[in-house]
Amino acid sequence: MRGGETPFTAYTALEKPPTVRSGTIAALAAVSLIAGLANGFNATLLEGAIPRLWQAGVISSTWQAGTLAAALSLGGLSGSIACTQLSFYLSRRAIVCFGEATIMTGAALFAAAPSFAQVLVGRVLCGVGVGICGLSKPLIVSELAPAHLRGVLVSLFAVGQSVGLNVFYVVDFALPPATVEWAWRVLVALGASPALVVVLLALLTPASAYWDVAPVSLTRSAGGPHTAERGPAEQ
């Protein structure tokens, strides 16, 4: 950088954050709440699915049941690590949509699985999506929310998780018993429905503000080779 030049930062690209409209605030609140619901539902899913999978013959040993129970956590760890890297290349909204798409893909594979191997792959993918969304959804809400509502909107994610746990128990109770083979497929498929809603809501949030521009895009806009200096809110 030559002497006298102002460093290119998010603040030079946009001097002050735009006014957040009430519709955007409502969308952010819904994203936070429903995203938490999806995470809570999927985290508890196996409590009702494993007895049904056992009855259907998809799993036949305690080793398979234990491996399936651990798959979400292992996938979530991978997803969390992946999210930290994706945040340098994709916008916040794109990361949320990618994570939710991963959850929907995993749920579809799980629900349609004829064997334990496919069930396991689907569950791992769900975990990866949950890990990505567990970081990216509170992030996008906190960055887009006005300061006086930021804490409330982010906390709705935790509220949604508690709601999701209880919704699962209600749905599991309402479904037919484990002897009905198709019931576990419906239970698993329902885990994808909140993810689809979150994608639609995320598309309603702004995409032009500086906090939804990937650092790589800022670098290219500034003409820099590899890095872009960030404003204090981004450090």
Automatic annotation (TrEMBL):
GO terms for cellular component: membrane. Residues 28-235 form the Major facilitator superfamily (MFS) profile domain. InterPro entries: MFS_dom (IPR020846), MFS_sugar_transport-like (IPR005828), MFS_Sugar_Transporters (IPR050360), MFS_trans_sf (IPR036259), Sugar_transporter_CS (IPR005829). GO terms for molecular function: carbohydrate:proton symporter activity. It comes from the Eukaryota. Its main location: membrane. Keywords: Membrane, Transmembrane, Transmembrane helix. It is a multi-pass membrane protein. The chain crosses the membrane at residues 25-43, 63-83, 95-114, 120-140, 152-170, 182-204. It is found in: Membrane. Belongs to the major facilitator superfamily. Sugar transporter (TC 2.A.1.1) family. This is Major facilitator superfamily (MFS) profile domain-containing protein.
